[in-house]
Specification:
Hypothetical protein af1432, globular, about 210 residues
Length: about 210
């Protein structure tokens, strides 16, 4: 459906060996996460493969794609060149490869900044990009364990690290990223609250049953 072999040949021609290897690793990581969490495996593999398709294009060309399409950047994205390739990639896939699947396009567009209420495919590509085989940053092993345990926990951990890192460097934090952090933090707190309520409820039931037996 996505002419994967053709896209692999295109990436091998247009990306550096290092970036091409990373793209293949992200595709494999995306496939494994899709299998684990019940997402579309073909879509995940394809989106992972092409997520950095515009990463090594000249910034002038990336900027043309950023402002040409409907994938509008916020202020922070517009002033952070390293974030352009996700927006440019979504535009390129839609206009040059005629990919119309909004989930794939959004997965590529938001794979660097995240956003609130991401689809499972978007989460998978975001996390796969961080845990691909060649990654060796401090904390990557923790990220890999979280990705295997709970995708939402992995998203929160990744966003916390991203926001903290950007602020330490006095950089701009995209609104999308802040909204994503707030969304996944709220989800984590709600989950914790529900667990605590269930624990209290179970304790009361246990005490009641014990009293009845006595």
């Amino acid at each position: 459906m996505y002419q994967v072999k053709e896209k692999i040949a295109f990436l091998e021609r247009t990306l550096s060996a290092k970036r091409f290897r990373h793209s293949c690793n992200v595709a494999r990581a995306s496939k494994l996460l899709a299998q684990q969490y019940g997402a579309d495996i073909q879509k995940a593999y394809f989106a992972g493969l092409v997520h950095d398709i515009c990463k090594e294009m000249p910034f002038e060309k990336q900027y043309e794609f950023v402002i040409a399409g409907d994938f509008k950047p916020d202020f922070a994205e517009l002033h952070s060149k390293k974030l352009w390739h996700g927006i440019a990639g979504a535009y390129f896939l839609k206009t040059e490869f005629h990919i119309e699947d909004e989930d794939i396009l959004n997965a590529v567009r938001f794979h660097t900044v995240g956003r609130a209420n991401m689809s499972i495919l978007e989460e998978i590509i975001y996390i796969a990009d961080m845990i691909s085989e060649e990654r060796d940053y401090k904390g990557v092993d923790k990220m890999r364990r979280l990705a295997q345990k709970n995708l939402h926990s992995a998203m929160l951990e990744a966003l916390q690290d991203t926001v903290s890192s950007v602020m330490k460097k006095n950089g701009f934090v995209p609104v999308y990223t802040i909204e994503a952090y707030n969304f996944y933090m709220h989800m984590a707190l709600e989950h914790k609250e529900h667990k605590e309520k269930d624990s209290v409820s179970n304790s009361k039931k246990g005490a009641s049953n014990h009293a009845q037996k006595s």
